[in-house]
Design a protein that fits this description.
CATH class of the largest domain: Alpha Beta
CATH topology of the largest domain: Rossmann fold
CATH architecture of the largest domain: 3-Layer(aba) Sandwich
Radius of gyration: 24 Å
Helix content: 40-55%
Bound molecules: S-adenosylmethionine
Number of strands: 10
Distance between the termini: 21 Å
Strand order of the largest sheet: 6-5-4-7-8-10-9
Mean pLDDT: 93
Order of helices and strands: HHHHHEHHEEHHHHHEHEHEEHEHHEE
Shape: globular
Low-confidence stretches: 1-6
Largest sheet: 7 strands, mixed
Length: 393
């Protein structure tokens, strides 16, 4: 995207003028020290540095072993261990019988899951749900994501090859059929069913926070672009009883969304429109247009085109609301930069953007008054709102 490359050019010109100051020289000195095995031995023994050395070692170990932790969780999910323990603490033998493992293997899994605080020991020989296992049961979408991640796990087998290719061509790329499709509107119902169901399952967690953060009942009509199966619109409809709900998505997804909205009791005030937001005009007349977990799936050129289409469909007094996890959120660097960084690479398009990057794209596509709105759990979802700039600006 030529227009948005401006910042990159400015940053690279700043880099070439880079002169290390005292702080940078101190960091280089520290790095040299930490590289030395003799210093590491000394720091592990010296009483004042021992705890720092131990913490760093644990951090590095966790990074090396993270894939084992993930697979332990996958085993718990596949064996429905948390469901088994929800009825009350069980011994390894009882778990073995429930999940069809030998008692020795049940014990091995129980110990591994206990160490990860997924479950906890109760008494001498029983295991019960811990805070993490209980939280998993309260959020069935997390288990669905854990299952789904086996595809990402396979795609990340050779992360260097993925980085060199610059785009995924594996299981996730196939799964998100629209990511690189030449004509996404030609996708048939089978190609969208799985991802739509996963999005619907995980949308509840997002919708809760978005609905709590914004007053939707002041709008006459809300258009949710890339609205999936309508879970978000149904949550909005529940708090905005007089608002018309319009969903736009690829034809087979819109059909699923329309059906869900009808079943949820919104048939009199909802409409689902099928189309490709890259080529088809968006329905007009909505005073609020929402893009929920849509922009981060796409590269800058497509995002600019989509935002311009949204701008075109919007009345002068309209509002655009973007809801998605954003990069640069304090405490969520691992989610934005590591998780989404690699997930979207494997998928084949998109990236998590900072509010500043989204603001730049919004301004380039005819929006103004871009504001970041607070949400309860910014790690999960953040909100940006914008107003259309007058066309002659
Ligand atoms: C990540 S999902 C998000 C769905 C929903 N907003 C949510 O948060 O659960 C992205 C949605 O954009 C839709 N989508 C992708 N490309 C599209 C296109 N070219 N035209 C219309 N919809 C598209 C997908 O079908 C999918 O439903």
């Amino acid at each position: 995207m030529a227009e948005a490359r401006g910042l990159t050019a400015i940053f690279s010109s700043l880099e070439s003028d880079w002169r290390p100051g005292w702080l940078e020289r101190a960091r280089q000195w520290r790095d040299q020290l930490l590289m030395s095995p003799a210093f590491q031995r000394w720091a592990a023994a010296f009483p004042l540095t021992r705890w720092i050395a131990a913490r760093r070692e644990q951090q590095l170990f966790d990074l090396c072993a993270g894939f084992v932790y993930t697979q332990t969780l996958l085993a718990c999910v596949r064996l429905r261990l948390f469901q088994a323990l929800a009825e009350g603490p069980l011994t390894a033998g009882m778990v073995a019988a429930r999940v069809d493992l030998s008692p020795a293997m049940a014990e091995r899994l129980l110990l591994a899951a206990t160490a990860l605080q997924l479950i906890e020991r109760r008494g001498l020989d029983r295991f019960g749900l811990g805070p993490l296992g209980a939280a998993m049961l309260g959020n069935p979408a997390v288990a669905a994501m854990v299952e789904h991640h086996s595809m990402l796990y396979a795609d990340l087998q050779d992360p260097v090859a993925l980085l060199r290719d610059g785009t995924g061509t594996g299981a996730l790329h196939d799964y998100w059929a629209y990511a690189r499709a030449d004509q996404p509107s030609q996708l048939d119902a089978d190609r969208v069913a799985e991802y739509s169901a996963l999005m619907a399952a995980s949308q509840t967690m997002v919708a809760e926070d978005v609905v709590a953060a914004w007053a939707f009942d002041r709008y006459k009509t809300i258009l949710d672009v890339g609205g999936g199966e309508g879970v978000f619109l149904a949550a909005v409809g529940a708090v905005a009883p007089c608002t018309q709900l319009v969903l736009f998505d690829l034809p087979p997804v819109a059909r699923r969304g329309g059906e869900r909205l009808r079943k949820a009791g919104f048939q009199g005030r909802s409409k689902a429109v099928g189309g490709d937001f890259c080529v088809d005009p968006l329905p007009t007349g909505a005073d609020l247009i929402t893009l929920v977990r849509v922009l981060h799936d796409h590269d800058d050129d497509l995002v600019l085109g989509l935002l311009r289409a949204v701008r075109k469909a919007m009345p002068a007094n309209g509002t655009l609301l973007i809801a998605e996890p954003m990069a640069g959120t304090s405490g969520s660097e691992r989610i934005g930069d590591t998780y989404f960084g690699f997930y979207l690479l494997a998928m084949g398009s998109g990236r998590a953007r900072t509010p500043a990057e989204l603001t730049q794209l919004l301004e380039l596509s005819g929006f103004t008054e871009v504001r970041l709105q607070p949400t309860r759990r910014p790690l999960r979802v953040r909100l940006l709102t914008a107003r259309p700039a007058p066309f002659d600006e």
